[in-house]
Amino acid sequence: MSAWSGIKTIAKRELAAYFDAPIAYVFIVIFLLLAGFFTFTFGSFFERGEASLVSFFSWHPWLYLFLVPAVGMRLWAEERRLGTMELLMTMPIAPWQAIVGKFLASWIFIGIALLFTFPVIITVNWLGNPDNGVIIAGYIGSLFMAGAYLAVASMTSALSRNQVVSFVLAVMICLALIMVGFDPVTSLLSRWASPNVIEAIAAFSVMTHFDGVVKGVLDFKDVVYFASVIGFGLFTTGVIIRSQRA
Amino acid sequence: MIEVNNLSKVFGTKTAVNHLSFTVQKGEVLGFLGPNGAGKSTSMRMITGYLPPTSGSVKVCGFDIVNDPIAAKRKIGYLPEAAPSYADMTVISFLNFSAELRGLSGQAKKAAVRRAVDLTFLDSVLNQDIDTLSKGYKHRTCLAQSLIHDPEVLILDEPTDGLDPNQKHEVRQLIKRMGETKTIIFSTHILEEVEAVCSRAIIIDRGNIVANGTPAELKASAALAGSVLLSLRSGVDAEALRQRVAARPGVLRGEIVVADGPRVVLRAMPDRSKAQGTLSGTLAQWAVSEQLGLEDIRVEEGRLDDVFRALTVTDAASQAAKAAEAIEAAKAAEAIEAAKAAEAIEAAKAAEAAQQAAQQAQQQGEQA
Question: Are B250 and B342 contained in the same domain?
C-alpha cells in the first residue's frame, strides 16, 4: 500500500467524523456569523469605501485563535480517550501517515468553512471592482495560517487525552504567536529592547506574516513561515506520540 | 510464526516484562495466562508493535517488529484489551476503514468485510453506530477488525471478556478453528478456556514465564494430580485404614478426606519417585481382596486452577497452597455423594477458614 493511500484512508475517516457530529455545522455557522460580524462592524467594511476584503481578512488571526483549536483539539485526544490509538498504531501504516492524514482532514474542514464565506466575495464584486487576485491570495494566506494553528492544535491534542486541556494549551500557544508580532505589544516592548531584537522576535509571529497577506501580497517568505510552523507542529506531534508509547 | 527473544519492558523502575522468550508455530494456539498486572498485555503490545521493547526482539513471520514494523504489522491481526473502536462510526464503516488501512479495496475489500462479518455474527447491527451497541457486539466488532485481512498471526487480548456464555462458546470455537491454519496468541483469565482451546499454555507472573506446556502437562504438575481417592464402607477405624493404605507399595502417604462412621474416604498420594504402574488398579484390587467395602475409586486429574495458584501466588505461597489444598479436599468431600449435610457444612466452614487463611497469607505477602 502506498503512503498516500494510507493518508487518504485516515483523512477520509476523520473528515467523515467531523460531519457525522452536529458540532461541525455549529462550528461552520459560528465561524460565518463571527466572520461577518467582524467584517461589517469592527472592520467597517462599508465605511472604508474601498473594494477590498482587508476588513474581512484582518480579523482572521483572532477569529482562528478560538475556532481552530476547537477543530483540532479532538484529533489525538479523542484517539487516546477511546483507546483506538492502540489500533491505529498497530495498523500497517507509519505514524506520520496518520498524523498527516488527520491534519489534512481538519485542514480540509476549515477550508470548507472558509469556502462558505463566498458571499463576501460576491458582495464586494457587486459593490465595486476589487482585485480578485488579491482576494484569492488572501484566501490562500488565510488557509495557510489556519494550517499553522491546526498544527499547533494537533501537537497539544497529542499531549492530553482531555480535549479541554488540549484546547486551552493550543489557544495559549496561538495567542503567543499572535502577541509577539502584535503592534501594541511590540511598541510596548520597544521601550526596553532594541529594534533588532523586537524584529527578530516578531519574525516568529503570525501577525508579521499575515500582514502582507491582508494587503494582498502573498510573499514566498510568509508561505515558508506558515509551512514551517505546520512542519514543526506535525513533527512535534510525532515525537509526543512516540514518547507516549515508550 | 512468532519468535519472542529475551523480550523486556521496563517502565521507570518497574520491570513489567522480564526476558521473555518463546516461539509459537503455525497451527498452534498459545494461551497466555497470568494474574492481573503480570505483564500479559504489555507483552502483547510489544509483539504487535504498539510498545517498543526495552530490550530483546520479536519476529513475526520472519519480520522484526522494530526494524521492519510495516511488514510485520501486515501479518498481524490484533484485538487490544478493551476492544476499542470509533464510537461515532457505524459497524460497517468501521470495518471498511480497517480493511482500507490493510490495503484492501474494491471487490477484495467487500469480500473481506463480508467474511469478517459472517465469522463474528455482526449481520444484524451493520448499520448501527458503535456506541449504541451492547458490550458483546462492540467486542465482536473489534474482533472482526482483527480478522478482516485473514492474517497469518492473531494476537487476541482477552477475546471472550464481556461476552455471554453462548458468545464465549462461539468465539472459542472460532479461535480453535482458525488455530489450525494460523498462529494465535490469546490471553485469558478463564482457565477452562485454556483447556478448551489451547494447544499450549504459558503462565506468566510478574513478567516471568513460570510454566510452559500443553494444558495436560500443566494439569499433571498440580499438587494433587495422580492421587487416588478411595471411598470405603467397612467397620474399620479411619485412622487404621489410613495407615494400611499408606503402607501399600507405591503410596507416599495417605490422608483422611472424610470419616463418617462406617464410611471413610481416603486419599493416597502416589510416590512419584518410584515407577507407578496403575496405582488405582492395585489399590482397587487390594481393597476388594481385603473386603473393605470399596464404593468408589477415582484418580485426581489435577486442575489448572491449582497449578495457576501455586505458580502465581506471592511470597506467602506455601501457606496459600496449603489452604488451596484444604479447599480441594472440602470439594472432594462434597463430590462424593453420601457426605452428610452437616459434614458438608463443616467442610465448607473448613474451606472458608482455609480461604481466609489464604487471604490473610496473601495480604501478608502483599504487605511484605
Answer: no
B84·A82 Cβ contact <8 A: yes
Is the Cβ pair B73, A20 closer than 8 Å?
A: no
Ranges of residues in chain B with a pLDDT under 50 are 315-316
Using one digit for the tens of pLDDT, what is the confidence trace for B104-123? Answer: 999 999 999 999 999 888 99
Which of A1, A5, A90 faces B49 most closely, judged by CB atoms? A90
Q: pTM for this structure? A: 0.80
Check CB contact of B138 with chain A, cutoff 8 Å: no
Q: Which amino acid is at B309?
A: R
- What ipTM does this complex have? 0.89
Residue B303 is predicted with a pLDDT of 74
* Arithmetic mean of pLDDT over chain A: 88
Cell of A122: 460576491
Whether B63 contacts chain A with CB within 8 A = no
CB-based contacts of B47, cutoff 8 Å, min separation 6 = B2, B4, B7, B58, B60, B65, B76, B155, B185
Q: In the listed set B168, B201, B220, which residue is the last one of a domain according to the structure?
A: B220
**Can you give the residue range of the structural domain that contains B349?**
304-367
Domain boundaries, chain A: 3-175+212-245
Domain count for chain B: 3
What is the torsional sign of CA A77, A82, A86, A90? Answer: negative
